[in-house]
Amino acid sequence: MNLRRWLVPALLLAFSLPLAATERNASLYQLHEELLNQDGKPIDLDVYRGKKVLVTLFYGSCPATCPLIIDTLRAIERQVDDAQRPELRVLLVSLDPDRDTPAALRRLADSRRIDTARWTLAHADAAAVRRLAAALSVQYKKLPDGQFSHSTVISALDADGKIVAQSAELGHADPELLQAISAK
Amino acid sequence: MIRACTLLALALLPFNAPGARAGGLDVPITGGRFESVLPPSPQVKVAAVPSFRLDTALVSNADFARFVRKHAEWRRDRVAGLFADEGYLRHWTSATEPGPDLGRQPVTQVSWFAASAYCEARGARLPRWHEWELAAAASATVPDARNDPAWRQQILDWYSKSARGGLPAAGASPANYFGVRDLHGVVWEWVEDAGSMLVSDDSREQGDPNRNRFCGSGAIDLEQKENYAMLMRIAMLSSMKASYSSNSMGFRCATDVGARR
């Protein structure tokens, strides 16, 4: 019964692998999107792999809600543990490929005094935006006047890119999001 | 033990479904100005829809099985959790085979990501909402029958049919004015811009008004409240995340006019 001795574990392995694989593959980095950062440099979506990341979609010319997104991200950064703060990264991807060119994103970064050593403002093409929004559960719609209507979702990713928390709250640091970032 | 072995071997065996109907037949549809239930913005009520091509039938299980065999990353046992929930293709007999009775039926239990990938592999894309709605406005005889009460009633009768006893074969329903079938049956369809519905009653965000903030002009009011069948579609689409699957959600593909397959 040598056969049985290896067959049982082999079968167990065969049936348990797919489940484990599915679990691993919840990473946002399954999307292999190529972006451009605020300096026009090509980067991959997983530019901050290995770090905890706050990621959100926005558009630069938004008059009201979007400046609030940057303030909210800053509030979260401020309230994170001192030990965690240097390890936290922020990725803001624009919904507006036409107007948010790298140059426009650089101007926005400068005017809002964003530290691009830890934050990235990124340009993505329309198809990449569509997939990213779908993966992050962000609803958005381009309006005839060139503005966008969109839901605001800040997602926290772990080092592997798995979404560990999402918040639609603006204006303050969502405690649930803070807790998720601070965990281990 | 031998039994388990056989089962495993069967599950891993590539299977060729005989008699499966090939999908991919599409027709050109002339676009134009279109009054949608979902207007482009609160100020702009009429959508400009460019001409496009649309599949005449829903994608079948057999069609989708061929895709899955060629693109193994979309098998239900290999797909990334980001792209499909646990219901994905769960009704198939194996990871690559729908089973003998399902081949001709429209594929359901597929996520938006999987449907998009299928169309992309064919050099196509999912239809956009306004395209789908324009195609679905046609009766058998006129391109826009939406103001015809008899036509509206017919649609509602179709929707009220139960899916019990199995779905009808893809392409089995009568062709409309454009030559397109299956638009109003028991299967609902993914669209490319399923994440753009932005209706104010988002079931995912119920109960907390603070969670419903939209940047820009905010939620878009629905028009033509009497167009009940279309409003149901929008409610369904706006409640589905892109990784969700449902036993009533299938899809078909579209292309821009002039695009080569």
Q: How is this structure best described in words?
A:
The complex is a heterodimer of chains A (184) and B (261). Chain A has helices spanning 2-24, 65-79, 102-111, 126-135, 175-182; strands at residues 34-36, 42-44, 52-58, 88-94, 119-122, 140-142, 148-151, 154-157, 163-167. Chain A has 184 residues and is an alpha/beta fold. In chain A, strands 5-4-3-8-9 form a five-stranded mixed β-sheet. The longest helix of chain A has 23 residues, at 2-24. Mean pLDDT of chain A is 87; it is low at 1-22. With 261 residues, chain B is α+β, with helices and mostly antiparallel strands. Chain B has helices at residues 2-12, 61-70, 112-121, 129-136, 149-160, 228-239, and strands spanning 26-29, 32-35, 46-49, 52-55, 188-189, 214-215, 249-250, 254-256. In chain B, the strands form three sheets. Chain B has a three-stranded antiparallel β-sheet, covered by helices on one side. Chains A and B meet through helix 1, helix 4 and strand 7 of A and helix 1, helix 3 and strand 6 of B. Strand 7 (148-151) of chain A pairs antiparallel with strand 6 of chain B.
By oligomeric state, this entry counts as: heterodimer
Whole-angstrom Rg of chain B: 19 Å
Measured on Cα atoms, how large is the radius of gyration of chain A? 19 Å
What is the percent of helical residues of chain A? 25-40%
Main beta sheet of chain B: strand number and arrangement? 3 strands, antiparallel
Number of helices of chain A: 5
Would you identify the regions of chain B where 5 or more consecutive residues have pLDDT less than 50? 1-24, 200-213
Overall pLDDT of chain B: 82
Provide the succession of SSEs of chain A.
HEEEHEHEHEEEEH
Overall spatial form of chain B? globular
Which percent range describes the beta-strand content of chain A?
Answer: 15-25%
Walk across the major sheet of chain A and give the strand order.
5-4-3-8-9
Q: Roughly how many Å apart are the termini of chain A? A: 46 Å
Strand fraction of chain B equals 5-15%
What integer is the average pLDDT of chain A?
Answer: 87
Distance between the termini of chain B: 48 Å
The number of helical runs of chain B is 6
**How many β-strands of chain B, per DSSP?**
8
- The helicity of chain B comes to 10-25%
Query: What is the H-and-E element order of chain B?
Result: HEEEEHHHHEEHEE
Strand order of the largest sheet of chain B: 1-4-8
